[in-house]
Amino acid sequence: MNRISTGIKGFDELVEGGFPEGSTVLVAGLPGAGKTIFGLQFIYNGAMNGENGVYICIESSPAELREQASMFGMDFNALEEQGKVEFLRIPKGNVRFNLFQLISKAVEGVKAERIVFDNIATYVVSLGRYVSLWDEMFKAPEADKKENSLTDDKAAVYSIIEQLKSLGRTCLVITHGDASGARISSDGMSEYLCDGIIKIDIVELGREPTRIIKVAKMRQTKNILQLREFEITQRGIEIS
Amino acid sequence: MDDDSADFVFERVLTNVSDISTPGHIISTFPSPRHSIVYERIIFLPEDFFVELEGAVIEHDRRHGRERLYEVGKQFGYRFTSLFDPDTKDVGKSIYTVFRYLETLYAEKVEIRSIDLAKKTIHIYAKNLVVTDRNDMGYVLPIGGLGGIWSYLFNDYTMECSHRKLSDTEVEIVMGPPEELRSLGLEVMTSLNAPESLDWDSYKIHNAAGHDAHGEYLSMERFMSSGVIAYERGDMEIKKARLVSIELSFLFSIEDRFSDDEVFSSSYNVFSKLAESVGEHGDPYRFLAKFFTALGFGRVMTIGRGDRMIFNFSGYPWASEKQEESGFGFVRGAIVGFLDGSTGAKNGVGPVSHSMLDNSFMLTIEVYKE
């Protein structure tokens, strides 16, 4: 089996050298934990090694992500100019229409082997608000609303993840963690649909806030379940 | 204890009085004899720890070791009773409450044979009293504890406790003024060093469970339902090693009054043997973290840091600000003992740090392979 290396220092050894090729991996955590940096490094390191990528962004704009990446020595401008990476911005106003046509086109355009979807929780919330507004404006019949309702968050999550999987690329799906701790993702569904789960968090160790990462699940892999401390250095995420 | 009593203990006392479903925090709340609400945080320790500790203390101090153990037991018993807020004007009622509690948790059977309030004495029969007599030293710690309880009830720290073995499993216990005990031909140890009182209001604040969404914590209830910890006829065991529930300040007293080496080595010996008997349970670090959580030591997670492992206790049992000076010998010894026993390698303990975060006492212990 081919394994797709993340290139993130200290991470690949937690998953036998990398993600199984073509797998869809959930990256969950509370805000500020490091999920987006993880995604950026995954795409950047791949592109630098001949595996092009698409970064689908909903929360942040491509400009914001490029700037964030540059703080860690990742120059995405050059990779975009070379046609190795594309940032695909999904405006909140267009969340309902031809999303996967857009994604497929971007993937084909750069011949991407890697995809990052950042952030499925935000997308589903945006979708719900948009559909509510649409239904209100056009006064859709109640029967139609229930039958065709896209405000069913779990159905939307299922649809997105299954469609991403159908592309056959190695994909990271970023989402918010559940603050109560009762489940992994805020939607409570993503973790069952994905092939792997990475949890990223910040805990208090003594007086120091400490970042931790754990591979909670990875199919076809003897992953190390132990929580590991990591730092965000000038080179991005590094696991000691 | 018969089956009905055992069921009563488990269903009515241990589950309704003691909440064992919250990971890391085992809290008992119940009305005191004076109708205030008692808030007690409990931890479980292997009984063998007390056996080892007695042995270590006596070995270290042959001349005064037993007296030291008795003194610590008495100080704990005195403070423990103050937590119960008994009605010292109605001693008879308070006696019943305290001894029902003792029978529930510390002996198979406790019977009050006679009480003479005028002479301030009480004769008790106990069967299978835990903690411990397995060193043939007598039940030094619990006898001291009972002396402390009696001292508090009569507001007189000169009260003592002694005992006489009736058989391998049965003992007669007598509490009262030392001269009364001597007149019965009993050996009497005395201790007049009354303990400092604890701030029970701060105790309640710093031992509240709080919320932590980070880890996957298991409660004592989960450990019991999984069968890792067995409960039968009033005894809780892991691989035939009996676990004893104690109010947390007893461990504080032990760590405060005995040397760090005595506590560490006792804990090390117990947990290294426990690791061998537990056998294969996956990653020993994660198992130990879950086990500590189930025993009531707070929510414990282990985090790898380079070639070291950090044990992080969130909501570690808190008794006093003096704990900040503690070496935490029990958990340090337990961690190193268990890891040595599991891995066959020598492990060392690195820096220990602690802090108070959102009123929860946080303890961090770093370990490494030597």
In short:
The complex is a heterodimer of chains A (240) and B (370). Chain A has eight helices and eleven strands.
What would you say this structure looks like, in words?
The complex is a heterodimer of chains A (240) and B (370). Chain A has a single domain, classed as Rossmann fold (3-Layer(aba) Sandwich). By secondary structure, chain A is an alpha/beta fold. Helix content of chain A is 35%, strand content 27%. A nine-stranded mixed beta sheet of chain A has the order 5-4-6-7-3-8-9-10-11, sandwiched between helices. Chain A is globular and about 45 Å long. In chain A, helix 5 (120-138) packs across helix 7 (153-166). Chain B has helices at residues 3-14, 47-60, 65-84, 91-106, 140-153, 178-183, 200-206, 220-226, 249-257, 260-278, 284-295, 329-343; strands spanning 18-19, 26-31, 37-46, 109-116, 121-127, 160-165, 170-176, 230-232, 235-238, 241-247, 299-305, 308-314, 347-357, 360-369. In chain B, the strands form three sheets. Chain B has a six-stranded antiparallel beta sheet with strand order 1-2-3-10-9-8. With 370 residues, chain B is an alpha+beta fold. In chain B, helix 3 (65-84) crosses helix 5 and helix 8 packs across helix 11 (284-295). Chain B is globular and about 65 Å long. Classes of the chains: A alpha/beta (240), B alpha+beta (370). Chain A binds chain B through residues 178-181, 201, 203-207, 210, 212, 225-229, 240, and chain B through 211-215, 283, 285-286, 301-306, 310, 312, 314, 353-355, 357, 362, 364. Strand 10 of chain A pairs parallel with strand 11 of chain B.
